[in-house]
């Protein structure tokens, strides 16, 4: 008997959020493994450094130089031989200032016992010098023989305040590891090595569509019972944050033939297809019927709020498809808030993983709840909230009003999710809760 797939294992009961994440990760690994058996040279590309933000590094970036390239001063102060001081003894040390060194303008001479040089941050350490004392810790005096400094010798240890050659990066050693989702600091790191281009993973092509007879595009007239489609624009915004290539397949009506044609066209073009709507148990939801024909898809009831119904799996390669792997499929709920929650909790990490990223998790912090929150044990809840500070300076979080799955304003006004765990019950004001921020600074 063959080993069941991650989809087969899920069954029909409500699925724990963590188990759903695990199952998705397993299937994505399977897709990556299949794709690696027939590698495609077009899976990577070389881009200019200034265009590499939010791309995923495809191979370790090796340092071309030592950083720093030579021993230098970590601060403004005075450099001298460490043996001139005895850290274990009280009393002053006095040294004569014989020269100055600046960043980009080093002092090329050497110093004798009893001497020091004035040195600026980043300036090369002169021959014989191995210690720097900050300028604010010395007393400077002018004498007939020149300038001197004095300081308590037990306030500085030999070797202090000196940056050693290669202590940041060593030539030939990895500076940035493959799979890194490149951030501004990474671009600065590459630039500091004199590197102007980076080899990165090809952007995933992600197709999106919305299904529903009630949906209208912006600019169309709203009939009785119809609404504007907001889900595609939320998805476009979230996908742009990941810097992926978007294929917008528009709105598809609740018709098996139209849906099947749209799914086939999307699968032909994209690595991933994300649909919204059509995954509940309603009579007009044809997604399940189509997926049984086009691929291997599980329809889940996830123990979470919002976002209980979700479909996940793969679409079979179609004749003439240029991409070597199957198309990953996510069928998200139709409610606008549920679309965003399920994207951030499941889809985002899967897209990054499929695209070769090694860091896919979003960090969690803790904050005090400013008010009680009602919660039933047995499901994970993602409340939309605003994180700030209370009068005591502690991290504090407040829910953004009504938390209905159709109230998109609850997300628009928020800057974070409050994550209430599966087994948690009601939250009292002043309880600590887990918080996941929407945006990061770096």
Characterise the protein shown here.
Helix 3 (231-241) packs parallel to helix 6 (336-354). The protein is 19% helix and 30% strand. The protein has 7 helices and 26 strands. The protein is α/β, with parallel strands linked by helices and 442 residues long. The strands form 7 sheets. It has a 6-stranded mixed sheet, with no helix packed on it. It has 4 domains: 8-44 and 203-354, MoaB/Mog-like domain (Molybdenum Cofactor Biosythetic Enzyme, Chain A); 61-67 and 167-200, no CATH class; 72-163, Molybdopterin biosynthesis moea protein, domain 3 (Molybdopterin biosynthesis moeA protein, domain 3), CATH 2.170.190.11; 365-437, Beta-clip (Beta Barrel).
The chain-level structural class is alpha/beta
**CATH fold-level assignment of the largest domain:** Molybdenum Cofactor Biosythetic Enzyme, Chain A
For the termini, the CA-CA separation is 49 Å
State the helicity in percent bands: 10-25%
Task: Using the CA coordinates, give the radius of gyration.
Answer: 30 Å
Assess the beta-strand content as a share of residues.
25-35%
State the CATH superfamily name of the largest domain.
MoaB/Mog-like domain
């Amino acid at each position: 008997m063959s080993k069941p797939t991650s989809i087969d294992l899920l069954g029909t009961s409500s699925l724990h959020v963590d188990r759903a994440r695990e199952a998705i990760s397993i299937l994505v690994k399977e897709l990556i493994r299949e794709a690696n058996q027939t590698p495609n040279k077009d899976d990577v590309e070389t881009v200019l450094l200034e265009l590499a933000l939010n791309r995923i590094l495809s191979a370790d970036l090796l340092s071309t130089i030592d950083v720093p390239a030579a021993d230098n001063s970590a601060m403004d102060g005075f450099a001298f031989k460490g043996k001139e001081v005895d850290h274990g003894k009280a009393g002053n040390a006095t040294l004569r200032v014989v020269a100055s060194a600046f960043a980009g303008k080093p002092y090329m001479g050497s110093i004798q016992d009893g001497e020091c040089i004035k040195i600026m941050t980043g300036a090369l350490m002169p021959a014989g010098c191995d210690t720097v004392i900050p300028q604010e810790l010395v007393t400077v005096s002018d004498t007939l023989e020149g300038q001197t400094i004095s300081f308590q010798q037990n306030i500085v240890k030999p070797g202090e305040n000196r940056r050693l050659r290669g202590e940041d990066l060593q030539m030939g050693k990895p500076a940035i590891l493959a799979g890194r989702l490149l951030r501004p600091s990474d671009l600065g790191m590459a630039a500091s090595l004199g590197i102007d281009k980076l080899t990165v993973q090809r952007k995933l092509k992600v197709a999106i569509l919305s299904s529903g007879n009630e949906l209208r595009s912006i600019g169309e007239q709203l009939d009785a019972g119809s609404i504007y489609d907001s889900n595609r624009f939320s998805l476009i915004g979230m996908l742009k944050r990941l810097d992926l290539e978007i294929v917008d397949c528009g709105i598809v009506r609740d018709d098996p033939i139209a849906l099947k044609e749209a799914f086939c066209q999307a699968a032909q073009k994209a690595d991933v297809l994300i649909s919204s709507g059509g995954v509940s148990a309603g009579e007009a939801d044809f997604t399940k019927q189509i997926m049984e024909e086009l691929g291997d898809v599980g329809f889940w009831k996830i123990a979470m709020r919002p976002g209980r119904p979700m479909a996940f799996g793969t679409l079979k390669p179609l004749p003439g498809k240029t991409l070597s792997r199957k198309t990953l499929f996510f069928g998200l709920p139709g409610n606008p808030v549920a679309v965003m929650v399920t994207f951030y909790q499941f889809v985002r990490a899967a897209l990054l993983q499929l695209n070769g990223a090694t860091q896919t998790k979003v960090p969690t912090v803790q904050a005090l709840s400013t008010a009680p929150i009602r919660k039933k044990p047995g499901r994970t809840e993602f409340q939309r909230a605003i994180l700030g500070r209370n009068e005591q300076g502690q991290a504090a979080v407040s829910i953004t009003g009504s938390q209905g799955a159709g109230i998109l304003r609850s997300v628009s006004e928020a800057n974070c999710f409050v994550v209430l765990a599966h087994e948690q019950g009601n939250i009292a004001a002043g309880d600590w809760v887990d918080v996941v921020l929407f945006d990061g600074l770096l």
